């Protein structure tokens, strides 16, 4: 069957270039291997003169990448406005940071309408549509409105907070009701699924019934609404573990990695890799590292924290303020504890290619992944996969990251407790080789049990089982202009059941 994957951000397999976010990094290998069509924004905007979205198609592994320009008049309200100044803070349990307007919401809905029209040319025959993340909560309902009867699924990469937080989102009822047009809604964890079910019961008065098998991912449930039946399940996303481990081994010879090792002069390395985002807990992490240096002077000169902080959404006031706060904290810690030949924190405001990051992870004795809230956090899984099995580093992981539900052999911490973060770093630095190896093997056993390709196949199989397969409506679908390589049409791609 044809698989159409939809997300705001897409990725291309370009060597030695930074990857634009965890969603893109996770989807790229799965989409490339499955032969799906991956549809998303081009990163460019256009004026309002074009009546229909123009879709540009190019090859991507066994499948294709299709991108479209979004309208200039609506892009900012859709992306910076409602998506990232209303939905993102609420989903990460920060309703106090919601800052949006009715115009932002109108733009958000308009972009969802535009994306739905662009998808029509791919919704033919037995095609399935799999929508990714909070940018497109109502996209399934828009597709149904346009007559698409094929299976449509949705996966939320972020956490889904409790009802008391969700109701802070403007138009929350309208959005959740629109989501029920999907045949399958997937979450990173069962906690998020249960939060969604609680909202449905308490806000919409809907009954969530039965326990069903959601692919190979465990128990799920069913909700029936006026739009039909929707299955809910947990599908924890993961990485290609063996590929990343191999990449880390090869990365040892990379110039950047060699320079990093030699620059440490025997000191141990702790590493954090995050976007500059308030959900990542960077100020707390820095304060935690400072607490270690303050309470245990023996660690001074013996450990360096390298924090890679990739700029993100810099035009949003909350992000501008956060960037300034982090810079001030780093300067303060380095000023208090630094020496002429030792800088406690190396703070880098840029991204690195996955191949380089793999080498950095393998070099680091401690991996710091301490978000205040996170759907999964693939950096945690990448750090574990990158380790030398004979001398592994230790993962310090927030108990509020989805990854903590799986990587329970990490040192789990409360990211709001600076002293606890510092103590965990100290414990990781002094842990015996035997314990480090035991924890590493336990976490690797979890990672080896799955792969991003299996995650992809599991969701698609469950969507296939869940959906009502209506007759195709190809004759009713309008033609949407598109340009592919050398002017050819988009390739026909198929996902093979196993």
TrEMBL record:
Similarity field: Belongs to the glycosyltransferase 20 family.
Organism of derivation: Rhodoplanes tepidamans (Rhodoplanes cryptolactis)
InterPro entries registered for this protein in UniProt: Glyco_trans_20 (IPR001830)
Full protein name: Trehalose-6-phosphate synthase
Lineage top rank: taxon: Bacteria
């Amino acid at each position: 069957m044809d698989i159409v994957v939809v997300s705001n951000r897409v990725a291309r397999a370009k060597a030695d270039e930074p990857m634009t976010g965890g969603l893109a990094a996770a989807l790229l290998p799965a989409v490339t291997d499955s032969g799906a069509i991956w549809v998303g924004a081009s990163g460019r905007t256009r004026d309002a003169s074009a009546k229909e979205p123009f879709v540009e198609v190019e090859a991507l592994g066994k499948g294709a990448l299709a991108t479209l320009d979004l309208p200039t008049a609506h892009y900012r309200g859709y992306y910076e406005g409602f998506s990232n100044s209303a939905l993102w803070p609420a989903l990460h349990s920060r309703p106090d940071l919601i800052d949006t307007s009715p115009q932002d919401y109108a733009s958000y809905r308009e972009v969802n309408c535009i994306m739905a029209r662009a998808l029509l040319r791919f919704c033919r025959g037995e095609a399935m549509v799999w929508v990714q993340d909070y940018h497109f909560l109502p996209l399934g309902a828009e597709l149904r409105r346009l007559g698409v009867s094929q299976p449509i699924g949705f996966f939320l990469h972020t956490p889904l907070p409790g009802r008391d937080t969700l109701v802070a989102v403007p138009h929350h009822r309208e959005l959740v009701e629109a989501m029920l047009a999907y045949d399958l809604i997937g979450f990173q964890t069962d906690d998020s699924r249960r939060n969604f079910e609680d909202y449905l019961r308490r806000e919409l008065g809907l009954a969530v019934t039965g326990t069903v098998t959601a692919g190979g991912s465990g128990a799920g449930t069913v909700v029936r609404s006026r739009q039909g039946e929707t299955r809910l399940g947990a599908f924890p996303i993961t990485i290609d573990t063996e590929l990343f481990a191999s990449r880390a081994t090869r990365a040892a010879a990379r110039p950047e990695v060699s320079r990093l090792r030699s620059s440490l002069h025997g000191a141990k390395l702790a590493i954090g890799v995050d976007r500059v985002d308030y959900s990542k807990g960077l100020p707390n992490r820095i304060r935690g590292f400072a607490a270690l240096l303050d309470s245990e002077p023996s660690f001074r000169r013996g450990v360096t924290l390298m924090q890679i902080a990739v700029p993100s959404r810099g035009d949003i006031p909350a992000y501008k303020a956060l960037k300034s706060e982090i810079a001030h904290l780093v300067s303060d810690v380095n000023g208090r504890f630094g020496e002429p030949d030792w800088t406690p924190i190396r703070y880098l405001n840029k991204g690195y290619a996955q191949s380089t990051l793999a080498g950095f992870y393998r070099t680091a004795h401690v991996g710091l992944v301490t978000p205040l809230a996170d759907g999964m956090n693939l950096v945690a899984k990448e750090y574990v996969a990158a380790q030398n099995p004979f001398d592994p580093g230790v993962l310090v992981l927030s108990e509020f990251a989805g990854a903590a539900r799986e990587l329970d052999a990490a040192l789990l911490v409360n990211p709001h407790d600076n002293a606890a973060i510092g103590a965990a770093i100290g414990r990781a630095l002094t842990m015996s080789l035997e314990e480090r190896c035991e924890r590493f093997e336990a976490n690797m056993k979890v990672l080896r049990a799955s792969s991003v390709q299996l995650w992809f196949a599991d969701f698609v199989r469950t969507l296939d089982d869940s959906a009502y397969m209506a007759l195709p409506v190809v004759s009713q679908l309008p033609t949407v202009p598109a340009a592919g390589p050398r002017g050819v049409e988009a390739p026909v791609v198929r996902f093979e059941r196993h």
